[in-house]
Design goal:
It is a single chain. The chain is 19% helix and 12% strand. It has a 3-stranded parallel sheet with strand order 1-2-4. The protein is elongated and about 80 Å long. It starts with 57 loop residues before the first helix and ends with a strand. 12% of the residues are buried.
Length: 155
Amino acid sequence: MDLSNLKPAKGATKKRKRIGRGVGSGYGGHSSTKGNKGQKSRAGASIPSWFEGGQMPLQRRVPKYGFTNKHFRTAYRGINLSRLARLVEEGRIDTAQPVTPQVLVDAGIARKKDRVKILGGGELTTALDVQVHAFSKSAKEKIEKAGGSATVIES
């Protein structure tokens, strides 16, 4: 055995179905595996799953009501205390410096334009000076219990 006679295992590869390439191919002839007539049998037929053939779509037929605050809400990047503790362990956060959104961007767990909120998941044993946009109540308690400080910044 050598490189010149290597080939894939039996059944590992399968030929592509080339439709519309003549009667001899087995997929040519009259309708080329596409059934009979209609929009889906034509060239370039890619119809979205929600399209209802021109009928008024369900999303427009159903009455709208209620209120959403989606466009005006303040979105935060939630970061758990366990994640901060892990970054301290790995040496990616300097405990002598305050933990700001820019420090978290440099550590790779937030983006530049994110508003950061620290959440209370996990435990924190190191005293950290955390300065971010928001804290959950439990996160603030745990940071202060560990001997650190939790300061809300504006921006």
